[in-house]
Amino acid sequence: MTRAKLHVSPSFYIFWSLFCLLDNEGILPLFLCAAVIHELGHVIAIYACGGYICGIQLSAAGAVLEQGRQLSGLADCAVSLAGPAAGMAAAWVCTMAGLPMLAGANIMLSVFNCLPLLPLDGGCALSSLFCLLPTAISAQAQLALAWFSFLASAALAVCGAALLFYTGRNATVLVIGLFLLHMNRYSLRDSFNYGMI
Fold it and tell me: How far apart are CA 28 and CA 195, in angstroms?
């Protein structure tokens, strides 16, 4: 088994440097901690299901894990939902430990990732379940999901641009919308060549 290759996009350095400069409320460490917990949930599930990770991509909007081999539809669905599940479990622990801000960061990240958009976890879970359908129906369902994700990502980017215009300081929604739009362009072109979690 080869070691996972790490690819870091320039947008990762630019966005997170700006975020650090503008983070007057100290929320960056909370979301970084929540993101690590979320990704660890995926990693544990991938290896528990007999898979492995061949690559990790870091960008302004987060991390994308590339699986080295295709898992079954149900296993892929479990892997997709393992990140949000880990986040919700961490939120419960943080609530019990009296850490409401960290609990909130875990809940927000988990709920957002459950949206039925590619390459978010909710979209990946749906995509893996579509693989269990007959081939012709599965292909149509996958294409519909890709188009829905693309259009919803475009709407998110437009809303993010409007939010940035009116507030003058919050570019997070815009960056996430553009990232999802970019990733969905590949989904439409490549017809899901590799798993994105």
Answer: 28
CA gap 50, 52 in Å, rounded? 7
Angle at 145 between CA 142 and CA 147, to 5 degrees: 110
148 vs 117: CA distance, rounded Å:
7
Query: Which residue is listed with tokens 């430990």?
Result: 97
Tokens of 146: 């890709």
Give, in order, the Cα–Cα distances in Å from 85 to each of 62, 105, 118, 191, 194: 18, 14, 18, 27, 22
Using DSSP's 3-state secondary structure scheme, residue 115 falls into coil
User: For 32-70, b where at least 16 C-beta lie within 10 A, e where not — what string?
Assistant: ebbbebbbebbbebbeebebebbbbbbbbbbbbbbbeee
Helix (H) or strand (E) holding 36: helix 28-48
pTM higher than the cut 0.70: yes
pLDDT block averages, 10 residues each, the chain of length 197: 76 75 73 90 91 82 77 87 96 95 94 89 91 89 88 88 80 76 64 39
Amino acid code (one letter) for 142: Q
